[in-house]
Amino acid sequence: MALHNLIENLIHELRYREVTPHLRPCRRMADLGCRFDHHFLTRVRGLAEESWGLDVTIEDGKDGAITLLKADITKPLPFADGFLDQITVLAVLEHIANPKEVLAECRRCLAPGGRLIATTPTKLGIKIHDGLVHTGLVRDVEPGEHKDFDVSPEALAGWAAEAGLVVEDVHSFELGMNAFLLASRPPL
To answer: Which residues pair with 119 in a beta bridge?
Structure first.
């Protein structure tokens, strides 16, 4: 396996270790920006009765109880209001121009009490990741693909609150290189 694959897999594994303890068994879950391999949904297979992976890099299809949809998550999501119990958005918000709008759309799709778990590199994490891309040690994004929103846990919490979500936990991890958010749609 190439060195860049080893480094990228380690980065993903550390993120998954941070997120997985916060997941709950549920009926319906979606992973936005699931990537071409939908690895995270495969890893947590069985946690939800039905799962959806959305990404612009995949083709529509099925993998057991996982439905894959080629979809741009910056557009309205293909779910009814209150349809999902849990949504993950892992290392995706830094790639899009309108993260606040995506979080608001997540709120719409979550059932009352439904949970959103998001991670994103902080400003420090983006600088380090972009340095790794520049050296060729990481090849999972194109140079300059990350948007620099000066992300911090506080900024992520602010976006979630503006979207109408209740912030339950927000913190940094991986030595401050990433921000973690657990938020929920308020109960009725």
So the answer is: 90, 180
pTM of the model: 0.92
As a residue count, the chain comes to: 188
Q: Which residues of the chain have pLDDT under 50?
A: none
Cα gap 150→65, rounded to integer Å? 37
pLDDT per residue as tens digits for the range 61-92: 999 999 999 999 999 999 999 999 999 999 99
Residue 62: CB atoms within 10 A of its CB come to: 8
137: number of Cβ within 10 Å: 14
- Contact status, residue 147 vs residue 95, Cβ threshold 8 Å: yes
As for how many domains the chain has, the answer is 1
Provide the pLDDT for residue 135. Answer: 85
Q: How far apart are alpha carbons 56 and 169 in whole angstroms?
A: 29
> Residue 134 belongs to what domain range?
3-184
Q: Output the domain CATH number for residue 9.
A: 3.40.50.150
